[in-house]
Amino acid sequence: VKIWREAGYPNCTGITRKLLQYWNDAEQRDQRFFFCQIEAVETAIWLNEAPESAKQGIEIKNDGSSWERLCLKLATGTGKTVVMAMLIAWQVLNKIANPQDKRFSKNILIIAPGLTVRDRLQVLLPTNDDDFYHAFQIVDSAMWQDILQAKIKVTNWHTLAPINENYGP
């Protein structure tokens, strides 16, 4: 990822390049992201957009399911929800700009481990009064209208459990 960053993010989309430049430019934003937030986002983007030649010898094992599972590990207090907002913006803006590109989506499902976390993650909804896209300047004003096209659902894992007719939903 470091080599990719230093080379100017080759092979990434124009939207991705614009976001990465914006996120790294302290003059355009009132606050800086933590280095670990930028590195986490860059890693996720690199896995999706870097040239295959850059990934030679890197194998991410699958658990055998049809779902690709990737994990970003950030310590408590490092701003995981901000990283989630950045990744949502990256996905949604790229999908709107390139509707046929299957690497991106504007439909986002967030499954929380419980009700408290679910409630805290409501800031990932652009229509929320306290949305993180404004609070942390995740996108500039020109990108804001496109973020509103996202279809984001925040739920907790309990809603995915099968209904038990003896106990209700």
Pattern of helices and strands: HHHHEHHHE
Number of helices: 7
Q: What fraction strand?
A: 5-15%
> How is the largest sheet built, in terms of strand order?
1-2
Helix percentage range: 25-40%
Given the C-alpha coordinates, what overall shape results?
A: globular
Total E-strand runs: 2
Q: What would the average pLDDT be, to the nearest integer?
A: 90
Largest sheet: 2 strands, parallel
Q: Which regions have little confidence, pLDDT < 50, spanning 5+ residues?
A: none
Question: Describe it for me?
Answer:
There is one protein chain. The protein is mainly alpha-helical and 169 residues long. Helices cover 39% and strands 7% of the residues. It contains 7 helices and 2 strands; from the N terminus they run ααααβαααβ. It has helices spanning 2-6, 14-24, 35-49, 80-97, 115-120, 132-135, 141-147; strands spanning 107-112, 151-156. It has a two-stranded parallel ribbon. The chain is globular. It starts with a helix and ends in a 13-residue tail after the last strand.
